[in-house]
Amino acid sequence: MTDRPDLPFRTLAQAAGPAKPANELVMPMSEGDRIREELEKGIVFTTVASVVNWARANAIWPLGFGLACCAIEMMAIAGPRFDVSRFGAEVFRGSPRQADLMIVAGRVSIKMAPVLRQLYDQMPDPKWVIAMGACSSCGGVFNNYAILQGVDKIVPVDVYVPGCPPRPEALLHGIMKLQEKILASKPELGPFPRKKRGTRPEAGSTQPKAGSGAA
Ligand code: SF4
User: Fold this and answer.
1) d(Cα 84, Cα 29) in Å, to the nearest integer?
2) Which of 135, 136, 142, 144 has the most ligand 1 atoms within 8 A of CB, as the residue to mutate?
3) What CATH number corresponds to the domain at position 179?
4) How many domains does the chain contain in total?
5) 31 in a domain, yes or no?
6) What is the mean pLDDT of the chain?
7) I want to staple 199 with a disulfide (CB 3.0 to 4.6 A). Which of 12, 34, 143, 208 is the partner?
8) pLDDT in tens, 168-213
9) Is residue 88 one of the residues assigned to a domain?
10) Which domain holds residue 160?
11) pLDDT tens digits, 104-148
């Protein structure tokens, strides 16, 4: 184990810096041994921000819904082959009120856009969005009047996962990137400021509702 500045926790040994041998004849204790010794004492140093970010990054609850073919790849990450529970994100929720990650897996039709936005609005803060695949990122091959040309027109996207469809490993990589983003962020402990979001579209229209403003 090394003294990495990105680690959320620091032990007494890490805070004290590298070990210096008492004299030339004594073998210096390795960094791993020193940390193990300190952990056995039950003492670690950290900040509230690090703990909050660490907890949030390692307990992401995705919203369980899929829109098109990409959703099949999304379902695969929950199985034993890819096992998203290694990253703490296996608890797919059936209600947006219990989820903090929306994985937009598939193309978003204009008719579906207000529904998706409503689900996003029902998710509690803090919340994140992954645009999975070419269709949700930019419309993909469906450059036509029926498909939203990128879900970032109606919700703020944190991570884009390219591909058509992306492999489950690519989605896992996207989740790991989101974890990095959460760990590097300044945690908001509430009350949460309103994020700058796209306006809510009306069914059948790509134009925002007049006077609706950010939700
Ligand atoms: S990106 Fe490809 S696989 Fe994903 S929804 Fe679009 S067409 Fe289907």
Assistant:
1) 37
2) 135
3) 3.40.50.12280
4) 1
5) no
6) 82
7) 208
8) 999 999 999 999 999 888 877 666 666 655 566 666 665 555 444 4
9) yes
10) 52-184
11) 999 999 999 999 999 999 999 889 999 999 999 999 999 999 999
